[in-house]
Amino acid sequence: MPDLSGKAALVTGCASGIGAATVRRLAADGARVFGTDLYEARGKALCEEVGARFAVQDVSDRALWPEIVAQAVEAFGRLDILVNNAGMVTGKSIGEVDDGTWDRVLAVNLTGTMAGCRAAIAAMVDNPGGAKGSIINIASTTAMAPLPTDVGYSASKGAVRVLSKSVATWCAKAGYAIRCNTVIPGATETGILDAAEADMPGLKAAVAATSPMNRLADPAETAAAISFLASDECPFMTGAEMLVDGGALSIHPGF
């Protein structure tokens, strides 16, 4: 179990799913956690449950990011971990997507992640004891095997993979001990999937079947991978992609 004692973490999209599981896991592993989300009631309740701090945040608001990071630093005296988890899906193909939907999904999933990295690095450089930290960006298997039914989500998550590598190598070349890695979850039991199942009965079973394990991931399984990357147990791991997909991308689609 990773030891995050004394570390300060910021987790976006903390109100449900992987974000909520991450807040719980990082806190259980000893970190002091600051969670953010657009959904105030759920996010605040979750953070209060585990003794974390909470703030309302729309990650696409680039101007708000330095303020959010400053709040975390003020609360904990430093920032060691950023988990860029907040995201959205659209369910619209290239034949259906409108400009507003395209702009919004890129603003949340890609620009929000970039702005978070930028603000976090600025804080981590000033950490007591020197520039050090771990940034974990949450992508998706659609970053490697895109969905024809969601062009915006697929494109934005693919871009997050490359963004993370650029951030990782820039920090390394600058001489900062700030790592940046990507977690790539497969189909996960979340509220988003529940809502989709209501509209498309049988979807969960079909999605679960994309993994040779024939099941959905529990959000806590992804949170465990995030905690490992947040810890000091992998100091030479940066610019990497950690698959938590139940083997979905390891099997030929015909089998």
Describe the protein's architecture and organization:
This protein has 255 residues and is of the alpha/beta class. The chain has a single domain (8-187, 217-243), classed as Rossmann fold. The protein has eight helices and seven strands. It has helices spanning 17-28, 40-50, 65-76, 99-125, 151-173, 191-199, 203-208, 219-230, and strands at residues 8-12, 32-37, 53-56, 81-84, 132-138, 177-185, 241-244. Strands 3-2-1-4-5-6-7 form a seven-stranded parallel β-sheet, with helices on both faces. Strand 5, helix 5 and strand 6 (177-185) form a beta-alpha-beta unit. Helix 1 packs across helix 8 (219-230) and helix 3 packs parallel to helix 4 (99-125). It starts with 7 loop residues before the first strand and ends in an 11-residue tail after the last strand. The model has no long low-confidence stretch (mean pLDDT 96).
The H/E string reads: EHEHEHEHEHEHHHE
Terminal CA distance reads 35 Å
**For the report, how would you describe the main beta sheet?**
7 strands, parallel
CATH-derived topology: Rossmann fold
Number of DSSP strands?
Answer: 7
* Relevant CATH superfamily: NAD(P)-binding Rossmann-like Domain
Total count of helical runs of at least 4 residues: 8
